[in-house]
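Key result, reporting period 2: structure in, sequence out.
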């Protein structure tokens, strides 16, 4: 399964060293590719815009830079399976068995938009194209991000939904929600204390983030934490897209950043 296929560096469709089709990369072995992994900076709805990917299962796996990063993205199946069963599920895209993926908000990924980190230049796809993919401050070549590549290769409008494909759910790691609610850093002692308390009291992080009824959240969590979880579930968030290796920012409680809808109107 080709991993993080849109990342600029060393990936299947990356701007710096990638290809413009699966066939161009794998040649006569293309038929043996049944799935791709979409990476932190893209989600299924972005990949649905390119019809060349329709036959593939879209998976979402976590990187493992540290234990706390494992599980930021995941694939959810109906029941346990062996290796052969997994291959068959990926081949057939059976959404009765492959239920959905758990997704980072793609804007939070390090390469969602174009940009030049040294000059703090964050560029929407349209802005970058208008600047001929150059940094507006120093004139050097900007790092072309995932959204730009999707825009270039896609043959469908934004918002297209692929029929009979497994669904997806966006989420924000619980520790980030707690940090925003407490107005402190994610590595602070108070955040870790509250995080462990919630896990001991309520269950696993995915159960809290994705499955727990809103009323139970409101009864069991600090008000701002409950509201942050609910907003993350429903997409009621504010985003500042990542670029050139700089993580983006997703805020669940504040209105200081532009709303997601307004931000994405830029392209």
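The corresponding designed sequence is given below.
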């Amino acid at each position: 399964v080709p991993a993080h296929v849109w990342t600029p560096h060393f990936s299947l469709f990356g701007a710096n060293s990638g290809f413009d089709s699966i066939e161009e990369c794998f040649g006569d072995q293309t038929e043996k590719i049944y799935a791709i992994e979409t990476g932190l900076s893209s989600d299924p709805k972005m990949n649905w815009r390119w019809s060349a990917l329709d036959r593939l299962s879209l998976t979402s796996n976590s990187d493992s830079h540290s234990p706390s990063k494992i599980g930021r993205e995941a694939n959810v199946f109906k029941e346990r399976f062996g290796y052969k069963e997994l291959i068959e599920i990926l081949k057939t895209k059976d959404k009765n068995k492959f239920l959905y993926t758990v997704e980072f908000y793609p804007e939070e990924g390090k390469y969602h938009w174009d940009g030049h980190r040294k000059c703090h230049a964050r560029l929407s796809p349209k802005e970058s194209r208008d600047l001929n993919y150059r940094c507006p401050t120093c004139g050097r070549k900007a790092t072309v991000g995932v959204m730009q590549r999707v825009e270039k290769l896609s043959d469908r409008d934004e918002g297209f939904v692929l029929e009979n494909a497994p669904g997806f759910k966006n989420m924000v790691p619980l520790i980030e929600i707690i940090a925003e609610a407490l107005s402190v850093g994610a590595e602070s002692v108070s955040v870790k204390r509250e995080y462990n308390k919630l896990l001991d009291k309520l269950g696993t992080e995915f159960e809290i983030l994705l499955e727990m009824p809103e009323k139970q959240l409101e009864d069991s969590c600090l008000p701002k934490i409950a509201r942050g979880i609910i907003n993350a579930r429903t997409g009621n968030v504010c985003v500042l897209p990542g670029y050139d290796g700089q993580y983006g920012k997703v805020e669940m409680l504040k209105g200081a950043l532009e709303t997601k809808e307004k931000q994405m109107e830029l392209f």
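The chain has two domains: 1-124+143-172+240-248, 173-234. The chain is about 35% helix and 15% strand. This case is discussed further under Risks and Mitigation.
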